[in-house]
């Protein structure tokens, strides 16, 4: 573990909870829930103070979860850490679900709620939604759903192939797609795809089961289909399925042509007659990978310089995290894969977990997670409820915070990480990845719309629909002789199994981040100011209000998509 929890200054002392609550002891936790549930509330002042106490309690409660998750992922081979984490998620958290629901209900049934000032609007709406969607008969079904989703993770995680004398995971195999040798790329791509194909029918069946189960959950809650339910469950109060369809159509019209143009250039530079699926990740000039830094202290120092150039608060907050060891950047044995930024809600501080090895993409990853961290810093003193602070902002905007930082930070990699040419190459790769991401998001979103509004489809019909989507949103690569692989290609998108409908958020946020970036180009100071203004609101406002604070319309239709396509096209030609 990188940071020493006991050494971090507690700037927000407890007023309601006693210092020594033992969150491993359910009877103690239960007593706090009971105290809040039984308290009589006669005035709006009493309700506000009740909310304050509840917020303090939830902050402390979820801090235990966050801390144990962080400790466990930093060292997965330590049985003590695993035990502490599992005890909390298996013994404590499930027991807390009914009393959490009871507090939501108590809040809704308190007459003083009607007199709460406007700043409680978002909190009110969220809790009302929770209670309205709750059905006791869905509790078991949701458990079943979680089990099936876990089954997906297990099947996907167990896949390995044997290559170059070693057993390798499919994630490890992905790096060979950057290899300059086309033969190696093709061989490793085929190996990985053949391995995936072995699970094709199992995955098909698993997905069909999930779709049927979700349909049942939606029906129980009074919805015709799961799409309507998912929109409410995901708190999409401010946009509709029709808005998502407008996004899909706009991406097809404005982004797909740009992506196909990039593919044409790529096949010319690579000097191949026909671009293939294994040709999309390699540097087309055949240059060796960029090397932005050699050591973690060097990385930290250079990031600090970038943040100083953007805004003095960013620099100060980042160095603060470094000093408290709230960033664990390097990849090492025993660490869980991936990267994340989480909030320690009682300390009101972020923790960044990464697996960096010195690649170009690592720079973007740390910029991204820093954006999330700055969100937490920006909302440290935000009242009145922990629901409003950084990490709890709606994901459509939380990802604006992080994706914008990739773009704004990218403006300063020259002179810190790279010389002029390498910086241009790194930026080009980043922008190209954005152009490729948007059509993929549109595909996944359109796929789910169809799947859940046609719940009685057969696996074959599903594949046919998927292929039609790939004609609309696919790039210039040829799948000839690999059509069967293309038919089941959707199965690699874990969100379809584990987090239905969760994906368009990234598209909405990416367009928002591009909007911030455009403002920054016009006037760097004003761009950063708009970014900071919106971050400081955390999750206390609706999505249209958060976007407005950032100087952006809350719109992901043709007008915005077209202007983003223009900006991306212009920048890509410049470099
Ligand atoms: Zn993120």
- SS summary, helix count: 22
Number of strands: 5
Present as ligands are: zinc ion
Give the biggest sheet: 3 strands, mixed
How helix-rich are the residues, as a percent range?
Answer: 55-70%
Measured between the Cα atoms of the first and last residue, the distance is 41 Å
Low-confidence stretches: none
Strand content: under 5%
N-to-C series of helices and strands = HHHHHEEHHHHHHHEEEHHHHHHHHHH
Gross morphology is: globular
User: How are the strands ordered across the major sheet?
Assistant: 3-5-4
What's the Cα radius of gyration? 24 Å
Mean of the pLDDT scores?
95
Secondary structure class reads: mainly alpha
Which labels suit this protein?
two-stranded antiparallel sheet; 4% strand; mainly alpha; 3-stranded mixed sheet; single chain; binds zinc ion; 575 residues
């Amino acid at each position: 573990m990188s940071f020493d929890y006991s050494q971090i200054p507690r700037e927000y002392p407890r007023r309601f909870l006693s210092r020594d609550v033992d969150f491993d002891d359910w009877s103690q936790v239960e007593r706090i829930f009971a105290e809040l549930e039984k308290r009589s509330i006669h005035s709006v002042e009493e309700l506000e103070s009740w909310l304050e106490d509840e917020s303090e309690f939830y902050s402390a409660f979820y801090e235990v979860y966050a801390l144990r998750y962080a400790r466990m992922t930093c060292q997965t081979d330590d049985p003590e850490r695993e035990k502490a984490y599992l005890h909390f998620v298996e013994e404590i958290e499930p027991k807390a679900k009914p009393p959490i629901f009871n507090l939501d209900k108590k809040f809704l049934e308190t007459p003083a709620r009607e007199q709460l000032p406007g700043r409680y609007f978002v909190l009110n709406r969220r809790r009302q939604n929770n209670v309205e969607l709750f059905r006791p008969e869905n509790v078991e079904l949701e458990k079943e759903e979680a089990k099936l989703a876990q089954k997906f993770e297990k099947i996907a995680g167990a896949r390995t192939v044997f290559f170059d004398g070693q057993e390798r995971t499919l994630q490890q195999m992905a790096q060979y797609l950057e290899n300059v040798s086309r033969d190696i790329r093709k061989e490793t791509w085929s190996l990985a795809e053949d391995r995936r194909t072995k699970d094709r029918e199992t995955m098909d069946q698993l997905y069909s089961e999930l779709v049927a189960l979700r349909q049942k959950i939606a029906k129980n809650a009074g919805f015709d289909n799961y799409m309507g339910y998912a929109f409410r469950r995901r708190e999409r109060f401010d946009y509709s399925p029709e808005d998502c369809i407008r996004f899909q159509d706009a991406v097809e019209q404005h982004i797909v042509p740009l992506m196909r143009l990039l593919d044409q250039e790529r096949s010319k530079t690579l000097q191949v007659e026909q671009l293939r699926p294994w040709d999309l990740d390699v540097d087309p000039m055949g240059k060796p990978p960029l090397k932005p830094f050699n050591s973690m202290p060097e990385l930290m120092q250079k990031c600090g310089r970038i943040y100083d150039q953007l805004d003095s608060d960013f620099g100060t907050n980042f160095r603060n995290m470094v000093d408290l060891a709230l960033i664990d950047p390097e990849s090492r044995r025993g660490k869980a894969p991936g990267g994340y930024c989480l909030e320690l809600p009682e300390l009101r501080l972020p923790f960044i977990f990464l697996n960096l090895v010195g690649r170009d993409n690592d720079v973007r990853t740390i910029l991204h997670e820093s954006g999330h961290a700055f969100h937490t810093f920006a909302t440290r003193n935000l009242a009145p409820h922990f629901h409003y602070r950084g990490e709890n902002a709606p994901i459509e905007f939380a990802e604006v915070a992080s994706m914008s930082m990739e773009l704004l930070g990218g403006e300063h990699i020259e002179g810190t990480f790279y010389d002029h040419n390498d910086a241009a190459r790194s930026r080009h790769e980043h922008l190209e990845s954005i152009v490729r991401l948007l059509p993929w998001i549109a595909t996944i979103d359109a796929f789910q719309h169809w799947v859940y509004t046609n719940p009685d489809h057969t696996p074959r019909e599903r594949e046919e629909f998927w292929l039609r989507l790939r004609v609309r949103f696919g790039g210039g690569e040829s799948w000839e002789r690999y059509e069967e692989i293309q038919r089941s290609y959707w199965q690699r998108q874990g969100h379809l199994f584990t987090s239905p409908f969760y994906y368009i958020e990234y598209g909405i946020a990416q367009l928002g981040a591009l909007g911030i970036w455009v403002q920054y180009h016009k006037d760097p100071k004003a761009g950063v100011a708009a970014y900071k203004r919106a971050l400081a609101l955390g999750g206390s406002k609706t999505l249209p209000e958060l976007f407005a604070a950032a100087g952006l319309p809350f719109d992901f239709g043709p007008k915005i998509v077209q202007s983003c396509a223009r900006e991306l096209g212009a920048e890509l030609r410049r470099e």
